[in-house]
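[Discussion] Sanity-checking designs against the backbone

I'm trying to build intuition for which residues belong where. Below is a C-alpha coordinate string of 185 positions. I'd appreciate it if someone posts a full sequence so I can compare it with mine line by line.
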Protein backbone atom coordinates (compact mmCIF):
# COMPACT_ATOMS: atom_id res chain seq x y z
CA UNK A 1 0.00 0.00 0.00
CA UNK A 2 1.21 3.55 -0.66
CA UNK A 3 2.35 5.77 2.20
CA UNK A 4 0.02 8.31 3.77
CA UNK A 5 1.28 11.91 3.75
CA UNK A 6 0.56 13.93 6.90
CA UNK A 7 1.68 17.51 6.52
CA UNK A 8 2.15 20.30 9.06
CA UNK A 9 3.11 23.90 8.36
CA UNK A 10 4.02 26.16 11.25
CA UNK A 11 3.54 28.83 12.31
CA UNK A 12 0.41 28.87 10.11
CA UNK A 13 -2.25 31.38 11.15
CA UNK A 14 -5.18 29.37 12.43
CA UNK A 15 -7.89 31.68 11.13
CA UNK A 16 -6.57 31.79 7.57
CA UNK A 17 -5.05 28.37 7.01
CA UNK A 18 -7.20 25.71 5.45
CA UNK A 19 -5.30 22.89 3.75
CA UNK A 20 -3.94 22.95 1.09
CA UNK A 21 -3.37 26.67 1.72
CA UNK A 22 -1.40 27.89 4.69
CA UNK A 23 -0.91 31.51 5.68
CA UNK A 24 2.02 32.60 7.81
CA UNK A 25 2.16 36.10 9.29
CA UNK A 26 5.56 37.79 9.15
CA UNK A 27 6.01 40.11 12.14
CA UNK A 28 8.78 42.11 10.47
CA UNK A 29 7.01 42.35 7.08
CA UNK A 30 10.14 40.97 5.45
CA UNK A 31 10.71 37.28 6.07
CA UNK A 32 9.71 34.48 8.38
CA UNK A 33 11.06 31.05 9.26
CA UNK A 34 8.59 28.34 8.30
CA UNK A 35 8.79 24.75 9.51
CA UNK A 36 7.50 22.17 7.03
CA UNK A 37 6.95 18.76 8.61
CA UNK A 38 5.95 15.40 7.25
CA UNK A 39 6.83 13.65 10.53
CA UNK A 40 3.26 12.37 10.94
CA UNK A 41 3.41 10.53 7.61
CA UNK A 42 3.26 6.76 7.77
CA UNK A 43 3.19 3.60 5.69
CA UNK A 44 0.33 1.12 6.28
CA UNK A 45 2.82 -1.70 5.57
CA UNK A 46 5.33 -0.22 8.06
CA UNK A 47 7.93 0.23 5.30
CA UNK A 48 10.78 2.73 5.70
CA UNK A 49 9.87 6.15 4.31
CA UNK A 50 11.91 8.67 2.38
CA UNK A 51 10.91 12.34 2.07
CA UNK A 52 11.35 14.73 -0.85
CA UNK A 53 10.37 18.42 -0.53
CA UNK A 54 9.74 20.12 -3.87
CA UNK A 55 9.11 23.76 -4.77
CA UNK A 56 7.51 25.11 -7.95
CA UNK A 57 9.66 28.00 -9.13
CA UNK A 58 8.37 31.18 -10.80
CA UNK A 59 9.31 29.79 -14.23
CA UNK A 60 7.24 26.64 -13.58
CA UNK A 61 10.19 24.34 -12.97
CA UNK A 62 10.29 22.04 -9.93
CA UNK A 63 13.26 22.09 -7.54
CA UNK A 64 13.94 19.58 -4.77
CA UNK A 65 15.24 21.41 -1.70
CA UNK A 66 15.25 18.86 1.13
CA UNK A 67 15.14 15.11 1.82
CA UNK A 68 14.19 14.98 5.48
CA UNK A 69 11.02 14.59 7.55
CA UNK A 70 11.19 18.28 8.48
CA UNK A 71 12.79 21.33 6.98
CA UNK A 72 13.09 24.99 7.93
CA UNK A 73 12.84 27.70 5.30
CA UNK A 74 13.30 31.45 5.49
CA UNK A 75 10.60 32.93 3.26
CA UNK A 76 9.99 36.57 2.34
CA UNK A 77 6.49 37.92 1.78
CA UNK A 78 4.84 36.11 -1.13
CA UNK A 79 3.19 32.93 -2.34
CA UNK A 80 4.97 29.58 -2.60
CA UNK A 81 3.86 26.24 -4.05
CA UNK A 82 5.35 23.13 -2.44
CA UNK A 83 4.91 19.37 -2.65
CA UNK A 84 5.91 16.76 -0.11
CA UNK A 85 6.56 13.41 -1.80
CA UNK A 86 6.77 10.45 0.55
CA UNK A 87 8.05 7.13 -0.78
CA UNK A 88 8.17 3.66 0.71
CA UNK A 89 10.56 2.46 -2.02
CA UNK A 90 7.71 1.01 -4.08
CA UNK A 91 4.94 3.59 -4.04
CA UNK A 92 4.96 7.38 -3.76
CA UNK A 93 2.32 9.68 -2.31
CA UNK A 94 2.28 13.45 -2.84
CA UNK A 95 0.66 16.33 -1.00
CA UNK A 96 0.82 19.68 -2.78
CA UNK A 97 0.18 22.85 -0.82
CA UNK A 98 0.56 26.60 -0.89
CA UNK A 99 2.25 28.75 1.73
CA UNK A 100 1.43 32.45 1.62
CA UNK A 101 3.57 34.77 3.78
CA UNK A 102 1.80 38.04 4.62
CA UNK A 103 2.61 40.99 6.85
CA UNK A 104 0.80 41.76 10.11
CA UNK A 105 -0.72 44.76 8.35
CA UNK A 106 -2.11 42.51 5.61
CA UNK A 107 -3.47 40.12 8.25
CA UNK A 108 -5.27 43.01 9.96
CA UNK A 109 -6.62 44.01 6.54
CA UNK A 110 -8.21 40.58 6.22
CA UNK A 111 -9.85 41.03 9.64
CA UNK A 112 -11.09 44.47 8.56
CA UNK A 113 -12.69 42.86 5.50
CA UNK A 114 -14.38 40.27 7.74
CA UNK A 115 -15.86 43.03 9.89
CA UNK A 116 -16.94 45.07 6.87
CA UNK A 117 -18.70 42.04 5.34
CA UNK A 118 -20.33 40.99 8.61
CA UNK A 119 -24.03 41.50 9.35
CA UNK A 120 -23.19 43.96 12.14
CA UNK A 121 -24.83 47.36 12.07
CA UNK A 122 -22.80 50.40 11.07
CA UNK A 123 -22.78 51.63 14.66
CA UNK A 124 -21.36 48.27 15.79
CA UNK A 125 -18.76 48.15 13.02
CA UNK A 126 -17.39 51.69 13.21
CA UNK A 127 -15.58 51.61 16.60
CA UNK A 128 -14.07 48.22 15.82
CA UNK A 129 -12.98 49.26 12.32
CA UNK A 130 -11.38 52.41 13.74
CA UNK A 131 -9.25 50.35 16.16
CA UNK A 132 -8.31 47.82 13.48
CA UNK A 133 -7.33 50.52 10.98
CA UNK A 134 -5.22 52.18 13.68
CA UNK A 135 -3.48 48.84 14.31
CA UNK A 136 -2.93 48.38 10.59
CA UNK A 137 -1.38 51.85 10.22
CA UNK A 138 0.84 51.24 13.23
CA UNK A 139 2.13 47.95 11.78
CA UNK A 140 2.69 49.67 8.42
CA UNK A 141 5.10 52.15 10.00
CA UNK A 142 6.76 49.61 12.30
CA UNK A 143 5.11 50.84 15.52
CA UNK A 144 4.58 47.30 16.78
CA UNK A 145 3.69 48.14 20.40
CA UNK A 146 1.09 50.65 19.25
CA UNK A 147 -0.38 48.12 16.81
CA UNK A 148 -0.58 45.48 19.52
CA UNK A 149 -2.22 48.02 21.85
CA UNK A 150 -4.92 48.73 19.24
CA UNK A 151 -5.48 44.98 18.79
CA UNK A 152 -5.91 44.60 22.57
CA UNK A 153 -8.51 47.37 22.55
CA UNK A 154 -10.29 45.65 19.65
CA UNK A 155 -10.32 42.42 21.71
CA UNK A 156 -12.06 44.18 24.57
CA UNK A 157 -14.61 45.73 22.23
CA UNK A 158 -15.36 42.36 20.67
CA UNK A 159 -15.74 40.77 24.11
CA UNK A 160 -17.96 43.56 25.44
CA UNK A 161 -20.14 44.27 22.42
CA UNK A 162 -20.20 41.28 20.07
CA UNK A 163 -19.87 38.14 22.17
CA UNK A 164 -23.54 38.12 23.20
CA UNK A 165 -24.97 39.40 19.91
CA UNK A 166 -22.95 37.19 17.52
CA UNK A 167 -20.72 34.71 19.39
CA UNK A 168 -19.55 32.91 16.22
CA UNK A 169 -18.34 36.12 14.60
CA UNK A 170 -16.84 37.32 17.87
CA UNK A 171 -14.94 34.06 18.31
CA UNK A 172 -13.66 34.17 14.71
CA UNK A 173 -12.41 37.72 15.16
CA UNK A 174 -10.74 36.90 18.49
CA UNK A 175 -8.94 33.90 16.96
CA UNK A 176 -7.77 36.11 14.09
CA UNK A 177 -6.46 38.84 16.39
CA UNK A 178 -4.74 36.26 18.58
CA UNK A 179 -2.97 34.77 15.54
CA UNK A 180 -1.67 38.22 14.59
CA UNK A 181 -0.43 38.87 18.15
CA UNK A 182 1.20 35.42 18.29
CA UNK A 183 3.25 36.20 15.19
CA UNK A 184 5.21 38.70 17.31
CA UNK A 185 6.23 36.15 19.95
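Best answer:
Here's mine. Compare freely.
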Amino acid sequence: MPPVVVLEVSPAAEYLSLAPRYVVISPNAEDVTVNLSGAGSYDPDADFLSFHWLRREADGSITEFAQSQETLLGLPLGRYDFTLRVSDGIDDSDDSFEVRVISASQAVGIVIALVEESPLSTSEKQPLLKMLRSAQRAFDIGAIESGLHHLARADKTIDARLMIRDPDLAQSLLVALNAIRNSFQ
